[in-house]
Amino acid sequence: MKRSRLPAFITLGVILFLFAPLVVLVVNSFNASRFGGEWEGFTWNWYVKLWAAGEVWESLWITLKIALSASLAAMVFGTLAAYALHRFRSWLQNVHHMLITLPLVMPDILMGMSLLALFVLTGVETGLLTIWIAHVSFCLSFVTMVVLGRLQDFDFTLLDAARDLGASQATAVKMVLLPLLLPGVLAGGLLAFTLSIDDYVITFFVSGPGTTTLPLRVASMMKTSRSLPMINALSTLLIASTFLFAALSSRLQRHV
Amino acid sequence: MDDFLVIDHVSKIFGAQRAVDDVSLTVAQGEAFSLLGPSGCGKTTLLRMIAGFERPDSGRILVGGQDITALPPELRPVNTVFQNYALFPHLSVWDNIAFGLRMSRRPREEIRSGVDRMLELVRLSEHARKRPAQLSGGQRQRVAIARALVNRPQVLLLDEPLAALDLKLRQHMLMELNAIHEKVGTTFIYVTHDQGEAMSLSDRIAVMNAGKVEQVDSPEHLYETPNTSFVASFIGDANFFTGVALEVLHEGYVRVLVEGLGSPLVLSNGAVTVNEVLRLMVRPEKIILTLARPLSGESVNAFRGVVEDMAYFGSHTRYRIRAGEHRILAQMQRSRFSGGEINPARGAEVWMSFHPDEGRVVRLEGEV
Prior knowledge:
The complex is a heterodimer. Chain A is mainly alpha-helical. Chain A has helices at 6-28, 45-52, 54-87, 91-105, 108-122, 128-152, 157-164, 169-197, 201-206, 214-221, 228-255. The model of chain A has no long low-confidence stretch (mean pLDDT 89). Chain B has helices at residues 43-51, 93-103, 108-121, 137-149, 167-184, 195-201, 219-224, 229-234, and strands at residues 5-14, 17-27, 32-36, 58-63, 66-67, 78-81, 155-159, 187-192, 204-209, 212-217, 239-248, 253-257, 265-268, 277-282, 288-290, 301-312, 316-323, 326-333, 349-354, 359-362. In chain B, strand 11 and strand 12 (253-257) form a beta hairpin. The two termini of chain B are 36 Å apart. The chains are: A mainly alpha, B alpha+beta. The A-B interface holds A 155, 157-158, 160-168, 171, 175-176, 179-180 and B 51-53, 72-74, 78-80, 82, 84, 86-90, 99-100, 103-104, 147-148, 151.
């Protein structure tokens, strides 16, 4: 029987659909034309300009600081929340579960507005701290969900076994539960990190003067045509580092 | 040291259910002891109370004279082989076995020699660096035993140790467990619902039902002289009859009138009064089938029946025989040299007989 070629064509079409915009972006970052409509020759110019744009690098630094600290906090609180949700049963747990899932389904714009309203009401000045609080609150839900999935596969007689062999409750958790949950916690943390890095909507509401994160910076650069090609260059660098990061993490996973 | 492990009037209540109901047991040092019963009989709860995972609602548990009732599991001189083995998946076989010694902060050298000695005992030395997931079921089982025994527990608890293995491996592990027990001499407590396992593993067995201990005895005694109909039916197969005591003879024999069977003479294990309603038990293989009425006369319990059904098992044949209202299970060895015995066909009329010593009066407790 002759195999149909249709699946191959569909696959090719999907890949084209997904990656064509990226290719255009990368190519344009080397295009001497400012508007990218047609090819006017190769140039490194936009990368040189980007290198000199200090405010972009400052924004990147702020973004990384927030993403790192927020995902770390989300890993700690999310793991604790998942453990509590899994281990204890009471009517309050239904409320707890709802609170955890709410940020996953709530529109970002609503979350950003309500957080801003809260900060205004309590007189907290918007800035690094408020962005961090907002990011922790939505990252936490994702970490909790990932760790909860991992906990559902965890065999709790392992903790009995550890105690039977002389470990106290705390030691059993440290020696058996945590090492086995760690891949889930790290996966949740990674998810939180990427969500935090490219969040625009919520951050837009709760950021203050001097705390322009990278997505906010890019959005403001879009307004001036002068810096459009610089965004292309920045995006190309981000794509390259993302691929590098993914390759590295899959390499690491193979070693575990 | 006849009462090394003492379970003293222990009860445990879950909600409205008495999971373990005023159980008292003593186990000698070095003994292989089984808690046997159907699921939900309380044997696992009792085991978890000895291990320290459950706290009894009343009663005490002592090991070697020390009251351990209030101790947490990590402080008890007791280790457990869990039903699903509960090996730590993130640790190698070696580290699994070393876990207990590390918890008690033994010197490095002692940990190394202890683990290596255990690996040798369970013949897994060449698998020391593997993860549990890379082992077969039988090997995991042996790691679990080594991990528990390396701590030199005074009592080793084994929760359904063979349940997760397939039939052939089970036979093999049975021998292995007996060999390990012989080598280390530790007190072994098995929990199992499989009477065959319990019989071949233990010196003594406690048969449990509905939170209570029905009988504690050696496997032979449980099989030959069960006290209750529950024990008789849980361990092996049994024919039961209800009858009225006609006369009580001096050596502990009692003649019982069973409707449809005449009046067989059987052994009793307790005080019986005339006219009392009794329950009799006879094992299928104790019933002898003959074509003619057996000769021994008065002392033999003989009655007639018609073969209703039969099943051939190679080493023996089982017959279902109808005698009046009764359906009687009989079992015969296949041997060409057994004189007098027969191979009756379906529909054949036969005589059944059994020696008075093979029949027994039992107390009526829910049969299975």
